[in-house]
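User: My instructor asked us to take a sequence, write out its structure as tokens, and then describe one feature of it. I'm not sure where to start. Here is the sequence I was given:
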Amino acid sequence: MEREDSQTENLIKFPGNFEVPKTIPTPISDKIIENAAKLKILSKYKSQYDFEIYRNLELRFGLDQPRGSIIFGSPFKLVNSHTTCQQCLYAFEIDTYGRGCTHDCVYCYAKAELTVHGWWNKPFPMPIDISEVWKTFYTVFETDKQSKWREVMEKKVPLRIGSMSDSFMHMDKKYKVTQELLRILDYYKYPYIIFTRSDLVAHDDYISLLNPDLCSVQMSIASTNDDLNSLIEPGTPSAKRRLKALERLVKNGFWTTVRMNPFIPMYADGYYTDPNFDKVNMPEPFHFSSYEMVDEIAKTGCQSILTGVVRLSSFSINQMEKATGRELRSFYKDEVKKSSRDFHYSDEEIRAYYERIHAKCLQNNIEFTTCYIGNGDVQFWRDQDLWTNKSDCCNVKGKVESFKSDSRQVSWDLRLKHSNNKCSVPNDLDSLHKPLVSFKPIEVIGTKAQVKEGFLFQ
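Assistant: Let's start with the prediction itself. The structure tokens for your sequence are:
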């Protein structure tokens, strides 16, 4: 009996009825905890974060550590020097978790990319080292020491939270890495834009950390059909929950946008724009995304909608067809598919969907912009006449006081230096950082209620 008690004393117990010896080395978490201890002495920001969380995570795996370790990569990225997304205004980004996402959306481009390389959810998303984030902010704003991020951060280029993974997955209630990031951003008065599919952002312990003077929240809702959402976005909170979260954010004074992105067209390519389209023998419509979503979104008080038509890799369309039991390849034109390796709609057809969603927004007195990422510069410049906010496709400038700059003000050479996607020559250096075009406001004949569906939606 004494021997059993002695053995128990040398074990650490974890939820799920498993135990590990206290003697297992924890070099990764030891370094994180040591760095945090130094910062607690040096920095004016006094973190209350429990850095022992990293040791517990390292001990959980014991001697059989996950591939890539218990922490995910370097925290910051300056992306979008890639040829299909050079114009993005918010290319300075951070993911608080990586190598996967519990939402597990079947169309996700990050899932497609990481699954091919064997990284996706193996065994679950891992947190970043939040002490490195603190160290970077401390170095840039409290010292004169060299930092590769100084030029970007001193310009207060807004930080985009959530790109390759959702930072507001419910697992953050355990690890609290996103919570600590929000505290750091608030302390240093740094602007940020949140991309999420989670209602967690509006829970009490998160909304209390958000600062409406520093941030905009963009809630991704590709569909309000929760029967299909359960198949296509199996790990996400329902659209109903996300709409309720939006309503609460609006009531608390936040500038909000719904990202109808990816918007998945109902009809095969050419339905609206090809005069030879065969509407008799066309594929049965796929009712996932819809125009009526705009009506539901407007009821929450959400101020803005941003739409981007879906672009799918071969992996993603396979996953979509498997999840829904629908054949979807016939929705795409062969000649368009041949122009790239992805499945995407023709520019003319994408524009037709944008015009119809824009009309719905006019009816509901809600602002509208488009996201071109992945679809090339043509869509960025062409569709600005539809934007309510001509200076910002994410529609935050002029809405959130702290948004004074953007990543287009970072030099091409610096963007290229930091980017993982190396593109040595921009699509068009003259247009890369030029001011957005000022269009005349779109004229609407009659009242908004007279923008009839019979004209635009037939």
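For the description part of your assignment, you could build on this observation: The longest strand covers residues 255-263. Try explaining in your own words what that tells you about the chain.
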